[in-house]
Design brief:
Shape: globular
Protein name: DUF3008 domain-containing protein
InterPro entries: DUF3008
Largest sheet: none
Strand content: under 5%
Distance between the termini: 18 Å
Pfam family, one: DUF3008
Structural class: mainly alpha
Order of helices and strands: HHH
């Protein structure tokens, strides 16, 4: 699944970093914490890897 906004893409990146042990899980908040708990590393990679150029900052 591809990210639908820049904020969603950033949250996926934060969750992915926590899954990989590069960031602390306790530092996650909101959407990134939910993503960490419910998505696989592969799903997070796909969402975090979405190119930001064409994404709106926030989803309407």
């Amino acid at each position: 699944m591809k990210a639908q906004s820049q904020i969603q893409q950033k949250a996926a990146g934060a969750a992915l970093a926590a899954k990989r042990g590069e960031a602390k899980v306790k530092d996650l908040q909101g959407a990134s914490k939910d993503m960490y708990e419910t998505m696989t590393e592969g799903e997070l990679e796909e969402m975090a890897g979405t190119a930001r150029g064409d994404l709106p900052e926030r989803k309407n």
